[in-house]
Amino acid sequence: MQPQIIKGAISIDERGSIKHNNGFDLSEVCRMYLIQNRDTEFIRGWKGHRIEKRWFVALSGSFTIRMVKIDNWENPSPGVAQLAFTLSSEVPDVLFSPPGYATAIQANEDGAQLLTLSDYLLGATNDEQNYPADYFNF
User: Fold this and answer.
1) For residue 4, how far is the Cα from the chain centroid?
2) pTM of the predicted structure, to 2 decimals
3) What are the beta bridge partners of residue 83?
4) Highest CATH level, class, for 4-20+34-130
5) Contact criterion met (CB below 8 Å) for 74 and 22
6) CA 50, CA 128: separation in Å to the nearest integer?
């Protein structure tokens, strides 16, 4: 599995607009939480999951989310290639983070909010691995 953007869209007619993501299958989602960083300088991460899948949607503002594939959970290579994604509340794109990846999240605007969805309930696994924000050179 690879990280990917599941494209959303906006439909507009005489009644107004609807933001939608008809390609996003929610059947695996068990839990959700909302992230709001304290400011735009703060980087939340790196947080990795061996088996958990996560999905991200910007509800307000925008975010830069970087991902790295972890090559060794106890001592990962700090120079591993990074993927960078930008999510904006203007379009309801969903970013999929598959198992085996770590993420770092930075808000691009004060007050931005990021919906995060998971396929495991809180406490169901001991799956989380944290690394310092500067470990992978954000």
Assistant:
1) 10
2) 0.94
3) 67
4) mainly beta
5) no
6) 7
pLDDT < 50 positions in the chain: none
Kindly state the tokens that stand for 32.
């959700």
State which amino acid sits at residue 103. T
Q: What is the pLDDT of residue 122?
A: 87
Among 89, 115, 106, residue whose Cα is nearest residue 40 = 106
How far is C-alpha 47 from the chain's CA centre? 10
Measured in whole angstroms, the distance separating CA 37 from the mean position of its chain's CA atoms is 13
What b/e sequence results for 64-92 when a residue is b if at least 16 CB atoms lie within 10 Å of its CB, and e otherwise? bbbbbbbeeeeebeeeeeebebebebeeb
What is d(CA 125, CA 74) in angstroms, rounded to the nearest whole number? 18
